[in-house]
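Appendix B. Chain record.
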Amino acid sequence: MLQTLQRTGFLSVFFCLSFYGISQTNLPVVQQYIHRHAVELGLNESAVTIEIMSEAPSKSPGVTHVYVRQLINGIPVTNGLATVTLKNGNVVYIANRLKNISATNATVPSLTAQDALGKALEQLSITNSQPIQVVKSSANNAEVVLSKGDFSREDIPAKLAYLADESGNLQLTWDLSIALKNGEHWWSLRVDAASGKILEQNDWISHCAFDDCSNPEHQHETTLETQHTVLMPPPPGVDEYLVYALPVESPNHGDRSLVINPSDPIASPFGWHDDNGITGDEYTITRGNNVYASDDINDDDNPGYSPDGSALTSFDFPYDSLTGVQGNLDAVITNLFYMNNMMHDIWYQYGFDEPSGNFQVTNYTGDGLGDDGVFADAQDGSGTNNANFGTPPEGESPRMQMYLWTEANVTDLLTINDPSGIAGTYVSSTAGFGPPVPSTPITADFVLLEDGTGDVTDGCDPIVNGAAMAGKIVLVRRGGCTFASKVEAIQDFGALAVIVMNNTGGQPTAMGGNSATAAIPAIMVSQTDGNLFQTTITGGTTVNGTIVAPNDLTATDSDFDNMIIAHEYGHGISNRLTGGSENSDCLNNAEQMGEGWSDWFGLMLTIEPGDAAEDRRGVGTYVTNEPTTGDGIRPVPYSTDFSINGFTYSATNNTSTISEPHGIGFVWASMLWDLNWALIDEYGFDPDVKYGTGGNNIAMTLVIEGLKLQPCGTGFVDGRDAILLADELLYAGANKCLIWEVFANRGLGFSADQGDPDSRTDQVQAFDVHPSCIENAGINENNADFVSVYPNPAKDILFVDLTKRADVTEIRMIDVQGKVLTELTGVTPSVVSINVSGFKNGIYFLELTALDGTKSIRVIKH
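Structure tokens predicted for this chain:
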């Protein structure tokens, strides 16, 4: 049955569709289907001209995911996309985001691409002193490449595209992408081709400035002792790396160890230091086909220092705690290089491979574009207490920026001098944007912000008492808008610093966000302390205070935090797989769960034997100087125990306590973490994260396949349904009811409603499972009315008794990653034997196809 999911309501890639030549072989069947079902899909006749942007294979044999975009007058419609899944050449599923078109405003632009870029720069307050030239153009000038000026890292692609409003009216725009030199933003813009106004603005850089932290005051300090390694020389021709080897998460969680030849023979067949597909390393530094890791301390976004392992490719470097973070670049960059490569090699096995748009300089299979290995910047000088990952479309390299984290994340930065009744030192936290708190004291009287609307102290509306702010420290309430926007608005009135008053209980949180213009420091105090300051001021008493950083601050290097590295890389996976590898604008809607997938990627690779579902798993406990059981950089730790993490779907509506996008992602990751443990409970845990057969491996397979299936601009219900369909395609629905029960347990049940994925405040939770799971909680593995399978568990021979079912036509044995190991067709009603002696011990699925459908039976090989 066809399933539909629809919503109502580098330079070589610049001309990717024109020059890359995506195969349009599957276009006729997709085009014909969309024409036939236009009414069902909510489309009129003028809206159904499409072209294929990219395709991605499935782990299910015969299944291909095709990503198509809409054309009007030969011009693409921004995010007018559909994910179409074919099985044996037939459409079986469509996730629809094609636009129903009412009218178009123009077919020819009034502004040239250069004019549109100039207008956009004005609105973004970006200065440029160099003339903008056309570097390259298509025959009809609908696609051009503009020179980079002195503000962009690289030349700027521009192409005509329509942008649809909610009524289906199309506005002709110039689609531009600008990678700023300072690395803060990689803007993806739609600029009105008539007026030059920016109509849509997305950032391809996922800023993981962690704005949901619920950090307690530091209870734990990790000291990396000086490490000297005395090891026997490795055998000739091996690669070795002294790192925090998975599943070790960080220095808090274990010691470094020497890993030898860790590259995967399938994902990286020529090792980690090759990039041309010919035997022999091209590099002896931390550079290769998948990643180029170096320092960017001076923040120029150019490759800096990379450790050299010599001809032996031996990256066995000591760590000396006495030399500080910059004195240990060899050790930290080696770890960054290792972890990026591990992310590449592991997730390759689950479907983030070359034809699906992964990150490689050379695509050894010939599928996909290539030329897009990761640039990984260690100790990036553009900020602190942060990390980010920029994901452009396929064929252009992403960039990972890893920062230092300071002990001042939550510490005593604020002292009240007057009045004496409240004088003393107060715990506060820092911001991940703008200048750091200086070691030179800032002393001034406090001013309470007023904006006259709603919560008059939140600074989300025009400030009405700006004249009183010059030379003062300004108090503003958290909530309603971003931290950075508050600081930017306040500094325009001459304030010296900003104190954000928390709007929820507990300790102040590390403030996330990004700003290219924030020029004054900002800290946060707790709700209790903020209320005290506010009450004192409104009572008519002047409050005077001092903000200053202690002189003995030390820094923690996130390049040693494998969880955060995995989180950042994970943004690249989810962005490349959602909506196809040629589109990086599919995870910018309000309800999107990108931060959740990224947390989950890190959690999955750091499970250790003996871990339990109820354990407290905080993200980033190392960089925040917490114990491993600490809350980390999320509202609470991940755990299936509702007394630890009781968040459900409705929490995404709460704009005060759950931020966008990090908090929303946290709720999604909580559901995925539950799903992982439910599958482990059913199938066991396998520490082999690449080729294992445990429940964790099944979870990894389902999530990657779900990313490929879900629509552009996805919401929670879309994500849930994509995982359910992945189970149907890969495992014949064997885990259907288990999946429903997991999601229903956190409010994403059968009757849940995501509303508009572009809104984060219209979600409705429900705790019911699919009706088919109420009476039948699962498939009976030995249903006599269907088939008998024995012995189960099996060691050598598995027997399948079909004597009671003459209509079974096909038998397949499938592993947990969806690979077909045995396939029998034309079977007769007899006892069929299957030799499983050569299979690894673990879980398999026996899939039987009959006239009434396909059923899957779990089989254990021991």
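Further analysis of this model is presented in Appendix C.
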